[in-house]
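In the laboratory, one determines a bound structure by crystallizing the protein with its ligand and collecting diffraction data. In a computational setting the workflow is compressed into a single prediction: the sequence and the ligand go in, and a structural description comes out. We illustrate the idea with adenosine-5'-triphosphate.
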Amino acid sequence: MPLFINRDQIFAHQVHLLEHKLRSKEERILELETENALLHLRLAECLGKLRRDNEDILQAQKHHQHQKHVQESTQTALAKLLSEVQVLKQDLRDVSAVYVSCATELEEHSRELQMRVGTASCAPQGDAGEIQALQAQVDALQHSLQEEKERCKAERLRRKLLHNALVELRGNIRVHCRVRPVLPFDSAPGQSASGTGSTLSEEVVHAVNDDSVLVNCSKSGASAMSKMFEFERVHGPEDSQENVSDEVKPLLTSLLDGYNVCIMAYGQTGSGKTHTMIGSQAEDLMGPEGTPLQGIIPKSAAELFRLISEKPAESYTVEVSVVEVYNNEVFDLLSKDGEGGAAGVKRDVITTSTGTSEVPALTYELVCSSADVMQVLSAVLRLRARSPTLVHRDSSRSHLIVTLTVTSKSPNALALARRLQSARKDVQRSHQKEWWSPRCRRAVSGRRRLDEQSASPASSPCHSPCHSPYPSPRPSIAQAPIRTKLQLVDLAGSECVGMSGVTGAALWETSCINRSLSALSDVLGALAEQRPHVPYRNSKLTHLLQDSIGGDAKLLVMLCVSPTQRFLAESLQSLGFGTRARQVQREPARRKNAALKIKRV
Ligand SMILES: Nc1ncnc2c1ncn2[C@@H]1O[C@H](COP(=O)(O)OP(=O)(O)OP(=O)(O)O)[C@@H](O)[C@H]1O
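The predicted complex, in structure-token form:
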């Protein structure tokens, strides 16, 4: 049967198909319109965000401008403040001079009157009236002398405050640099610097003035290139040991005012660290009358004992301890063996409950003069690890730390104020520790109050080390002696293994030296960036020096630099270290307070 298809049916089918197509198109249009609407919404959102971001950028720019302005005005104010402090210091010096002459005059006058009273009292009764008048005059003079003395005392305290404020304004970390003279070992015979055409002994590091070092670091074929570094003080080859030591003396005043002080020499091997810190015995370097050219350690000890001699007798005691950090181990160089001979015993470094670092069982010796200190030191220096390298035939392979611990039985007002401040901080810290300890978290808050009342040793500040001769009952904060540390550090030399030509055990020594110096650099970097964690415990050296590098202790880094082409890379490394150290700003809030204090004084 032939297949007959109705035309209407075909049309109806086509219409159906078209209607279906139309519906799907309409659905697609709807989808696209929805997408479009969503995109519009996104666009609006993005535009809004862009506008907000622009506003934020504008705000940030304004903030930045404001900060810049504040920084500029702060710098101007600081400069002004510094010059005011200088003027004030001069004024105080003048006032003191006037006071001294006034006091002498008054004392002479008073003596004269007393003599006259004495003579008059031997005279007949009729002179009684005159005697009384003279006695009244003497009393008045003595009264005004007493007043002058009080005023002078107040002025002295004010001068101390100004001194410490000035040191703090300059920053608690100061960097000095010493460029030593050219020495015979600066050139290996017959050698010249590769490709530069210059000889190894050519001078490329120059102390151009009191605070700048210029380094010529031209490369072969390149045009002359030089770098300038700035430090608080720069010493050139012609500067004597005396000049270098004089610059560190102001820090010793701060030591007696209750600050920990650290002076450390940093530099490449053979750059003059031991010469600067201890001194040289070499015959050709002998000072006048054949005395050895004493370095910072003997000169600082002498200055410290000079300052102490100006205080009331027996108000200070000084103890010395000497340790070396060798291959990341701490050795007590003053410990004695069975027969009383010197023997370096290995010791540990711990952090106490108050957050300070301590070496348990460390040997201390009581010293009464700079000569005592040097006698102790020269007896143990032979124990220090040394070995020849290609650069330096008597190279120190360890870090030497000489610590003078000063105990003050009658601290001055400033030191007492500092003690109260640090005691308050210790109590806060130990309360925080208690609060976070699992025992305490379990305990009810009422029990905590009881703990505080019973004043556990952990929450009361201990200012004396464990070997202190002051047993219980613990003296009050005002009565307990104040102990401050002067740490004098002769670091081992940073060096390039290839240049020093070391192998075997010496290679291990060099690697330990370089690692501990880079740990020191890391600590300074963390402090400069104000990171919450400072990696003091990454090496024994930084752990030992923790109290002097952190907090408000005063640190002076003495960069020692060789002047010649041969050690250019090492010198640049040392100068870079010094520049980083200068970027550390410790306890800015405290410095600000100190600055305000000056205005108020
Ligand atoms: N300013 C200077 N004037 C004269 N001689 C110096 C000076 N600085 C260093 N010297 C001499 O240079 C030599 C090396 O100095 P020093 O021993 O102090 O180096 P160093 O940096 O301690 O080396 P290392 O880290 O290897 O122990 C010594 O003979 C020293 O007398």
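The first helix runs from residue 7 to 122. Keep in mind that any predicted model is a hypothesis to be tested, not a measurement.
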